[in-house]
Design goal:
40% helix; 2 domains; 6-stranded parallel β-sheet; binds guanine
């Protein structure tokens, strides 16, 4: 058996088109342009690539984009002052502070200084609590993208067994919460999980988000399982490098029923969901109806 390839690149394009439609309607009917502010501290090369891509996609969706590039030695007070300004700026509906921040900055303090209504990453403690209690919240982009792909492929997820591998605040924990809210039976696995392959083999759906290149192999999977690979790992390949996921694609594609490739799977969904969250935040801020299908 060879798995169905879940094409995140194509799916993300449909989400971005839906967002662009929503933005066009907001502009023409209400004279409102959704705006996203991105704050980047320091010059981490991977973060620079993400931020460039975010700016391009924001513009393509017809949104306003505000970029704040700050030196690596920016003080916490200076960063907090910028966040306060963005919180108060009516043209800004979404604020994203690119992580990781340099070590001298307290990420929790900085994230919790963002107005929760503008927290398009869904990392503010208030949004985490709201998601955990089933209240309306901003939802972290990567798990939201994974949920959209799973619902698109399976329809209802109710009653399915899921193994989420990884317990990060950005992916693993919110992913588990979203799947629990969809009535899945969820196991969160991590580095101390005893006999991980045995836990994974019970699952109808596996979400791999550990950051370990090609760790999940085909013999870990229940035949026909759906594998969502969130990993983006760069590994040596001769005298070059290449991107691989947290799953060994070659062996998993032979056992899984459906699988996301790397690149071209979950990755493109993250920015599409960031745009979706910005549109959602803008609609909520203006007491306008939210477009269907962009929130859980
Ligand atoms: N760094 C890596 N992924 C993310 C993300 O989803 N949001 C932010 N703010 N920073 C990140």
């Amino acid at each position: 058996m060879t798995a169905t390839i879940l094409d995140g690149k194509a799916f993300a394009a449909t989400i971005r088109a839906k967002v662009a439609d929503g933005v066009a309607t907001l502009k023409s009917e209400h004279g409102i342009t959704p705006g996203l502010a991105v704050v980047l501290v320091g010059d981490d090369p991977a973060s620079q690539v993400y931020v460039r891509s975010k700016n391009k996609m924001t513009a393509e969706a017809g949104m306003a984009s505000f970029e704040h590039r700050l030196d690596a030695d920016t003080s916490e007070d200076a960063l907090l002052a910028i966040i306060r300004k963005l919180n108060d700026d009516p043209q800004v509906h979404g604020i994203l502070v690119q992580l990781p921040l340099p070590d001298h900055l307290d990420s929790d303090l900085v994230i919790n200084a963002i107005d929760p209504a503008k927290d398009v990453d869904g990392f503010h403690i208030s949004n985490v609590g709201r998601l955990g209690t089933g209240q309306k919240s901003m939802v972290p982009c990567t798990p939201l993208g994974c949920l959209m792909m799973l619902r698109d492929h399976h329809g209802s997820l109710s009653g399915m067994e899921v193994a989420v591998i990884g317990r990060s605040n950005i992916v693993g924990k919110p992913m588990a919460q979203l799947l629990l809210n969809d009535s899945c039976t969820v196991t969160i696995c991590h580095s101390k999980t005893r006999y991980l392959p045995g836990v994974v083999r019970r699952a109808d759906i596996v979400v791999a988000a550990v950051g370990r290149a090609e760790m999940v192999t085909g013999d870990w999977l229940k035949p026909g399982a759906t594998l969502i690979d969130v990993g983006i790992n760069r590994i040596p390949d001769g005298d070059k490098t290449r991107l691989v996921g947290d799953a060994d694609f070659a062996s998993c594609v032979e056992v899984a029923g459906a699988i996301t490739p790397v690149p071209g799977g979950v990755g493109p969904m993250t920015i599409a969901c960031l745009l979706a969250n910005t549109l959602t935040a803008c609609c909520r801020a203006n007491n306008l109806p939210e477009p269907e299908g962009l929130t859980p």
